[in-house]
Each structure stands twice: as C-alpha cells, then as structure tokens.
Design a protein that fits this description.
Layout lengths: L2 H8 L3 H8 L6 H14 L5 H8 L4 E6 L5 H14 L5 E6 L4 H12 L5 E5 L5 H8 L5 E4 L8 E4 L1 H14 L5 E5 L5 H17 L9 E3 L4 H14 L5 E4 L2 H13 L9 E3 L5 H5 L6 E4 L1 H17 L7 E4 L1 E4 L7
Parallel strand pairs: 1-2, 1-3, 3-4, 4-5, 5-11, 6-7, 6-8, 8-9
Antiparallel strand pairs: 10-12
Helix pairs in contact: 1-2, 1-3, 5-13, 6-7, 8-9, 10-11
C-alpha cells in the first residue's frame, strides 16, 4: 500500500491523505473515510520518509542519571505523562551517574537524532555548560538552575533552611548534617547552605561543622550516620540531603538502640516512599517532582513551536511533611 492507493480507496486526493498523516486540516467526512481505509488495510506511513520530508524525527530525548531513584522516577513519570498527550515519542538514556556518558548522549542525540532534549541534571562541569550552550536542538534542564536557559528546578535552599528551623522547633538544638557532593548545586550545595544559614541565624554557627558527605543510597546513609555520631556523639538530630540517606540513618539508629525521634530526630528531602514505610516515619520535604517533568515538556513544546521563544527559568515550591506532628 502507498498514499495513492489509500487515496483511491478512500475517494480522496493523495494530498488529502498526506494532510491526514501530518495532522493538517481536512473535513471530518474525509478524515473518517481515510481512517476506515487505514484501519482496514493496516497501512502505516514510512517514518524515514516523513523525517526526510519534514526534517523532524518526532522523537524527544530524555537523559537521566539513574532510574533507581524515587525523585527521578517521579520526574520521568511527569515527562512521559505530558509527552504521551503529544505527537512525540521518547528515547530514554540512562547514564548511571557517569558524567562522560552524559556528554556522549548529549552529543549523539543532538546530532539530529531527536527534535529536542530534556536533561535531568546533577553536576554541571565546564564541558557540560559548553556543550549545552552549543546544542543545535531545543532543550530543557530539570532539577538544576541553568541561568539564561530553559530550566525547571526546586527551591532547595529555602526548603533546607525551613526544615532546619522546623527541627529546632521540635526542641532539637544540636543537629548534624549528612549531605551530598557539593558539586551538585541543588541537592549538594543549596541544601547544605540552607542548613548552614539557618543554624547561623539562630546563633549556632558552630553546627556548620557537623557535616559528612554521603552518596545517594540507604547503605551510605547508614554508614555516614555511624561515622558522624562517632565523631559527634552528642547530636540530637540528623538532617539528610535525601530520603535515602535518612532511611539509612534511621536503620543505623534503630540497630544501635537509639530512640527516634526522642533521642535523635531524623529528617530527609523528597517525600519518597521510603519516608512513608520507615518506622518510625521521618520528617521530610515534599517537592513537585512530577510537575517539574510536566513543566519541562510544556517548555520544550513551546520551543519547538516557536524557535524565538524567550528562555524561562521556573522555580517550584515545597512543603514540609512531619507525620509525627500530623503534618503541615
């Protein structure tokens, strides 16, 4: 089957069939006639031919650092939910936190393999910034602030600041901080700086030294909680950069017969499933991860429709979840 044969069976012109497959305007009567023929014959237009003709692949590349992450999973859900309502398909690239792989995927996908890119970022090296600024396809950054470019990110600094103040409001005065690598501007640097500024503003500047760096896992949270408490055994709270770290800290405290939250209160970031199933549940911060994914798609589609669209930098809010106090 080809376009001419479909047109003959439907009683329309070949041009009308082409408009049908390219979402052009045709009457409802002709659209229904073509639809019936297509359904009966099982005809599918050549994707390669459409790409050569329109210079569009109808594909969107989505680059993520890993998939075994509650927050990233929610971002991807938001992206897919929005893209599934559009005419675009998705290519998902997982880098396993390998910065070299991120650069490779950005280069390969940029080489006219996709119409646009969504990049869930963690660390921006000089190579990342140079490559992103020279991409030939539209792109949106998710999870990090990239000034002067389309990006959607979270208010990590104020979330951490308010979480720290909340912990003091629970009667704790000597918290420690289990953080992420500071090269990660959002989860690492911004959340730690929020903690530091909060304790300084409350007159506890010495607490900024109660810091240890973990990776993004429950096992690391467990080990780093142990190390931090060996160094500072008088801590009465552990603020963690992620829920995974917090879950590991709770596990260590439970095995060490340290009461949570009476002796040591634990807090994380992410409002993940871990925060709901850990016993007792720890305090956490809710971020609009799915909304960030949906917003990224809207921003990318806007660029695809209007090449001259002005860059947008969207910062999303948050709220603290404290089930031990009924939440607020």
């Amino acid at each position: 089957m080809n376009v001419s044969e479909i047109a003959k069976l439907a009683g329309v012109s070949s041009a009308t069939v082409s408009r049908y497959f390219n979402n052009g305007y045709i009457s409802n009567e002709k659209r229904e006639a073509i639809r019936k023929v297509v359904e009966e014959t099982g005809y599918r237009p050549s994707v390669c031919a459409q790409t050569l003709r329109t210079k569009k692949t109808k594909m969107i590349g989505v680059i993520v650092p890993k998939i075994a992450s509650d927050s990233i999973g929610k971002m991807v859900e938001g992206i897919l939910r929005a893209l599934n309502k559009s005419e675009y398909q998705t290519i998902l690239a997982v880098t396993q936190n390998n910065q070299k792989k991120e650069l490779e995927y950005l280069t390969v996908l940029n080489d006219k393999q996709v119409d646009g890119l969504i990049f869930i970022a963690t660390v921006f090296s000089p190579e990342h910034k140079h490559l992103l600024k020279n991409l030939s396809v539209p792109f949106v950054i998710v999870g990090q602030h990239f000034q002067g470019h389309f990006c959607v990110y979270h208010d990590d600094y104020h979330a951490s600041y308010d979480l720290t103040v909340h912990i003091f409001g629970r009667g704790k005065t000597n918290p420690g901080y289990i953080g992420a690598i500071l090269q990660d501007e959002a989860v690492g640097a911004s959340r730690y700086h929020g903690f530091c500024d909060a304790v300084r503003d409350m007159g506890y500047i010495n607490l900024t030294d109660n810091l240890i760096i973990a990776d993004f896992s429950v096992a690391s949270g467990y080990e780093k909680a142990k190390e931090l408490l060996q160094k500072h055994p008088d801590l009465d709270a552990l603020l963690c950069a992620t829920d995974s770290m917090a879950a590991g800290a709770v596990q260590y405290l439970s095995e060490s017969k340290i009461s949570v939250p009476d002796q040591i209160l634990v807090a994380g970031h992410g409002d993940s499933e871990l925060s709901k199933v850990t016993s007792p549940p720890f305090v956490t911060v809710h971020y609009s991860y799915e909304k960030s994914g949906e917003t990224a798609v809207q921003m990318l589609l806007e660029q695809l429709e209007d090449k001259s669209a002005a860059p947008k930098e969207v910062k999303l809010g948050y709220f603290i979840v404290d089930k031990q106090k009924g939440g607020f």
